[in-house]
Amino acid sequence: MNNDQSDSLSLTRRSFIRAGAAGATGLALTGLAGLTASADDTTTLGKLPTRRYGRTGLQISALVGASDWSPDIIPLAVQAGVNYWHKAHRWTADSMPAAIKSQPRESYYLECVVDRVGGDHKTGHIDEEQHYQMVKQCAAKSGAGYYDVFKFHFGYHSVEEAKSQEGQGIVRAYNRLKKEGIVKHLALSQHHYNDLTGGQMAFDIITYLVNNSPFEAAQFFYTYGDRKEIQDVIALAKKSDFGVIAMKTMGGVGRAAQDKRMQAMLAEPRFAGSTPAAAMVKWLMSNPDLTAAVIATKSFAQLQENVTAARQAAITAADRHSLDLLAAFNKGTTCLLCADCVSQCSEHIAIADIMRYERYALDYDEMSRARSEYSSLTKNGTACIACGDCLPSCKADIDIVAKLKDIHSLLS
Question: Do 292 and 13 contact (CB within 8 A), yes or no?
């Protein structure tokens, strides 16, 4: 447990449940408020702070935008100072939002994401030529001239793969594109792969890459209550001028927003002026070693809440109470994606991936995406033999055996 948690209100799951549903006020949390943006709304957002994105030298907004954001909120995000766009390779010259492309090209940063070929992020392989051609074609269609960041999506399976001839194909493709002026900087988003034979945890792979590779930045899972190894790798990255973007930060926020007991408790005076979502953003921004966070954003209400929190940054007592309340709500229900359970599974089920798909469905309101991802698994929740070997490793006290059955019912 980190200092933020130990110094703030201790709230057990039992006491949370005891609170009951009485007194619900319908408090709007991120994911619930369906506000419509107006011209007057834009003046309330203010400008986001920027931070140096490691060795890239880019000064990027503390909140990162994404190409799957609603076109309606992107102009407002631009006005609020969002200047870095995740998965921008999905945009063509026709589909790139006018609010972005109407700006001077040097004032915003586009990221091109490269996936393995011939399979998914676990079964596919790295192919220098195909990656090179894909980025070149996307750049030509984008009309943007170049991508600021070439990002290897999902990352390496292990340090050994990163060192291998095939693994270096990513670097070779990047070097060719950089020489032609099509890309400028190299980064990756890194997942855990301890469910694969010889696979390693994200923090082990990034620890190696920070000082032993041409990669300049990484994106990985990071949320309140995360394991010490993640905190350590973020500190190492800062010390080595290696950029870090946090992702999958809002576990449980969406489902908590629909829970009447949660709403009832948040109406109490000790939570005044805070919500779990805003508190989470402030907590992220309070870490000076973190560059930015990418957070799924679907409405002006969400954008306003996140931008306001990122600008305030300082965590209040109410924010600490909100975070502890969210942690209590999540206990036994919401996976933190630490992946410790995966190493204990004799059936090699991708438990953390399955829990991530549940998050898409219940926290991000992306049921179609969740079901599509789940259907692509070679082994889904039905492969569980209920041995229970994974249970002692779960710091969130989740009944993983039962949870896998529930997720299968939800997503199959």
Answer: no
For residues 191 and 290, give the distance between their C-alpha atoms in angstroms, rounded to a whole number. 18
Give the pLDDT score at 321: 96
**pLDDT, average across residues 145-169:** 98
Structure-token pair, residue 89: 């390779």
Output the pTM of the full model: 0.86
Give me 138's structure tokens. 């996307």
Q: What is the widest separation between alpha-carbon atoms in the chain?
A: 63
pLDDT tops 90 at residue 230: yes
Tokens standing for residue 133: 């051609």
> Which helix (H) or strand (E) is 374 found in, with range?
helix 367-375
Task: Please provide the size of the chain in residues.
Answer: 412
Burial status of residue 115 (CB atoms within 10 A of its CB: 0-12, 13-18, 19 or more): middle
Distance separating alpha carbons of residues 143 and 94, to the nearest angstrom:
9
92-107 mean pLDDT: 97
At residue 77, does pLDDT exceed 90?
yes
Residue type, 137: Q
Domains in the chain, start-ordered, CATH in brackets?
3-23+39-330 (3.20.20.100), 340-411 (no CATH)
Nearest by Cα to 377 from 409, 343, 348, 342: 348
